[in-house]
Amino acid sequence: MRINEIANLIKDANICVDVGSDHANLSIILAKENKAKIIYNIEKNSAPLQNSINNTKSYSNIKNVKSDGFKSFDSSLLIDYCTISGMGANTIVEILDGCKNKINNIIVCPNNNYQLIREWAKNNKWKIKYEKTIIANKIYYEIIWLTKTQGKKVLFKNQCLFGIRSIKKNDSLFIEKLKNEYESEDINFFKNKNYKKYKYLKKVKRYLEKYES
Predict the structure, then answer these.
(1) Which of 21, 89, 96, 165 pairs as cysteine with 116 (C-beta 3.0–4.6 A)?
(2) For residues 78 and 14, is the Cβ–Cβ distance under 8 A?
(3) Which of UniProt's keywords are assigned here (predicted)?
């Protein structure tokens, strides 16, 4: 589901780069559906890279590259879509910070610390074109599509936490995620133990109250 959701956002690309491609499932969909002329799978470890190589032998427009993020990737290539999925936001931000390529679209799907992606977008003058919450194998993910020219700017701290969607128009799965997060924690426990977490849970509570009002 996660891979299909991302693939549905991509079209008419010359070059697409999937960082952390694992079994190359996304690149295979893009090749089969003619969504990109050339697709690069990037893996830093030999075992997942070999998975990609084995699975893409019959696709001449899929190239597999061993690289730690973009460190060993051709920095002269113009990338239409860069996708990074299924890893933590800290790692995604590190990969993006290390990229020297010009990129038109970034589609990320972190499994935690989603606000770091929006903070990165805010600090680097990217706009959010699309956001969606999904769940796979009982793990919540946020799909966030960034562009330089289309979408909404991230202006406020609450937008980093909760996205640029209006409260009343937010998708039900995102609200479910917030409720589960809030209800699974004892907010008073964090008041003296972890004040940053306490403040965050207070904001989640206020956000949910506004949604339900």
Answers:
(1) 89
(2) yes
(3) Methyltransferase, Transferase
